[in-house]
Specification:
By secondary structure, the chain is α+β, with helices and mostly antiparallel strands. The chain is about 35% helix and about 20% strand. A 5-stranded mixed sheet has the order 6-9-8-7-10, covered by helices on one side. A 3-stranded antiparallel sheet has the order 2-3-4, with no helix packed on it. About 30% of the residues are buried.
Amino acid sequence: MTTGLRSGVSFCEVGDRLIFLDIRADRYFGLGASAERAFRRAMAELPVDKDDPPTARLLERGILVDRAPFAPRACPAPAAASESLLDLDRPSVAMHSLLGACCGLARARFALRWTGLASALDWVRAPGEQEPAVTGAFDRLPEVAAAFDLSARLMRSHDQCLARSIAIMRRLASLGVGAELVIGVRLRPFAAHCWVQQGPRLVSDRVDQVRSYTPILVL
């Protein structure tokens, strides 16, 4: 057992800084210089002095926990995005697909607003939600991507990347198609973005839109 990261907190390294996401509190944060040095000692599995003030504060704040099975580990990166479904020739989008995308986005917004980030993400990864892949499911991915892209013209899309990604994940799960929801961050200035990808293929974004972000959470 060692000093590890509290469940519900993830982090990544951007440049020379560590950036954290507390899913339960729905917030991003960084550490001061002394606290970051103490945290890096835990990452390196070096001896941790729990009476050291920076370490003690990390434990008191619940960022680090004692007697954890693993030392803190940065978020593993997904496959490097190399192409986007949005760059393919746009397929025709059936009206029911467009309405389904709009309804899915509305439900995701509701979940985020009224249940919070942690519950909304649990909604994405709920056990038993993904069915076996339906016939032709992978051939339908371009239409799914196009339907959600088109829905942005009908519904307010500014700052809605998280809700859209949750809705897309739910739609893909209903088709039996596995995918990853990725939240990434960047600095100077700080910004966060969320997208969906299936292996190296982006479903909800173009490659240029995500390449400047470092993944901090991958589901």
